[in-house]
Amino acid sequence: MAQFDRYNDGSKNAPRLRIQHSLWSLGKLPMNAEQEWTLAEKFAKAKAGGFEAVECWLNDESEQEHKTELERAGLKLVLGHRPFTLPEVQQTVDRALRLGADFVFAQPADAFTDAQAVATLCREGRKIANDAGLAFFVETHRNNFTENLPQTLQLIDLVPDIRFTADLSHFVVVGEFYGWADERAIDRMLPILERTSHMHGRISNGEQVQVDVGDGTNMTAQFFVELWATAMKHWLPGAGAGDVFPFTSELGPPRYAITTPDGKEFSDRWEQSLVMKSLAEQAWQKATA
């Protein structure tokens, strides 16, 4: 079977970074407004902000509206899903083919599922997608099998050629990493970083999974820049013409977002998503220097 370790856009361009946005992260915006942006407004904002694609989790009822609005905005589609079974993977792959999605990523099962069963899901799920011509990446995420480093390392032992969608905020909050040198965070995460083909941009301070990082110059943000750059450095050597490293700004609405007691956000997630974009570009510059 063909195996895709990277998403390739079919061009002859040099390997590049592509910045994406999460549809979920565009929810409940603008900040604390009475009227949320329409789907068309969300996609128009993403396009104007310099994002090239939107990650969506879709069903039969929502897929056509999203496809239409993405095409109107000139944005590409990426599909996420949380499979427990191979038929669920097949359903998402079929949807991706129907809608022209670039690739798919999966949050695998849960932390209470047998490791061998998860390994089979990841291995065979990738085969289903790759045989259809699509890259397939496994996301690191809380409340999935990949919610912590020991279990994810166990999964790597079972599926050494696995490729990840790395949302490192989950490892940082579960492991209570602060970015101090003696924590050896990069060393501990290196088996994941070496296998990362897609990145989710959310920053944890080791206590909250999502924090406002201001302009991104503080230590917490720069710790993540180093993590992201390390993953990009390991992705680059095998990359060829048309290969793309997708990075997705993914800042969740409440309850991910911290709020005041009345439920109002005090951090502007749209402005922070632009900071995530800037930090991803900074990491890419580090990786390619």
If you had to describe this structure to a student in words, what would you say it looks like?
This protein is α/β, with parallel strands linked by helices and 289 residues long. It has one domain (7-288): Divalent-metal-dependent TIM barrel enzymes (TIM Barrel). The protein is 40% helix and 15% strand. It has an 8-stranded parallel β-barrel with strand order 2-3-4-5-6-7-8-9, surrounded by 6 helices. The longest helix has 20 residues, at 269-288. The mean pLDDT is 97.
Distance between the amino and carboxyl termini: 35 Å
User: Which strand-content bin applies to the residues?
Assistant: 5-15%
Number of helices: 9
Average residue-wise pLDDT: 97
CATH class category: Alpha Beta
Which fold name fills CATH's third level, the topology?
TIM Barrel
Radius of gyration: 18 Å
Question: Structural class of the helices, strands and pairings?
Answer: alpha/beta
Low-confidence stretches: none
State the CATH superfamily name.
Answer: Divalent-metal-dependent TIM barrel enzymes
Strand order of the largest sheet: 2-3-4-5-6-7-8-9
CATH architecture: Alpha-Beta Barrel
Largest sheet: 8 strands, parallel, barrel
> What is the strand tally?
9
Shape descriptor reads globular
**What is the total number of structural domains?**
1
Please give the share of residues in helix: 40-55%
Oligomer: single chain
User: What is the H/E string?
Assistant: EEHEHEHEHEHEHHEHEH
